[in-house]
Amino acid sequence: MDKPVSWKASGLPWLLLSLLLIALDQATKAIVLAELQPLQPHAVIPGLLNWTLAFNTGAAFSFLDVGPGPQRWLFSALAVVVSGVLVRWLATIPRGDWRNALPLSLVVGGALGNLIDRVRFGQVTDFIDVYWRDAHFPAFNVADSAITVGAVLLIGFGLFATKKS
User: Fold this and answer.
1) Which 8-state DSSP code applies to residue 65?
2) Which positions are annotated as active-site residues?
3) What is the reported pTM?
4) Are 150 and 107 in contact (CB under 8 A)?
5) What distance in Å separates the CA atoms of residue 48 and residue 50, rounded to the nearest whole number?
6) Which 8-state DSSP code applies to residue 164?
């Protein structure tokens, strides 16, 4: 990988988006922690979307949510390692390469947003409850959304990349 000449020329300024996502994620979690009672839904779009305070000790979308245990530190370490790798990758791409920089910064922001919760509380605060009739998708948050959108964009841009002449 080629290294850009300067910090400003690299993809590192995209980390400002990551910081914005972390702030938005933590602000929304602080609001729901102050305003909502656990597992009591508040309808936003009846039949489709509730705000429902829930806690997750597992990975995104409650994967491996088995209560307190070593997964807290495993997922924390994974977030640090993945974020470090992605920041290093951002440092090697040109600033204008938004097809790589945007998804990477979304994943970094989401990973670090959830990492803050894991370190502070031992669990991640979730509150977005999407459902249809009796079928509920696992509750999630802004950080989970950023990780998911970033990963989908990275895969999509990779699959449909055009070759440069």
Assistant:
1) -
2) 126, 144
3) 0.87
4) yes
5) 7
6) P
8 A C-beta contact, residue 93 and residue 11: yes
Provide the Cα torsion 83, 86, 91, 94; round to 10°. Answer: -140
Q: One digit per residue, pLDDT tens: the chain, 165 residues?
A: 555 557 678 999 999 999 999 999 999 999 999 999 999 999 999 999 999 999 988 765 555 555 556 777 888 999 999 999 999 999 999 999 999 999 999 999 999 999 999 999 999 999 999 999 999 999 999 999 999 999 999 999 988 876 654
Q: Please give the Cα distance from 60 to 78 (Å, whole number).
A: 12
Would you state the structure tokens that stand for residue 113, as one six-digit string? 């947003």
Say how far apart CA 97 and CA 83 lie, in whole Å: 19
Distance CA 165, CA 149 (A): 29
Number of Cβ within 10 Å of residue 66's Cβ equals 9
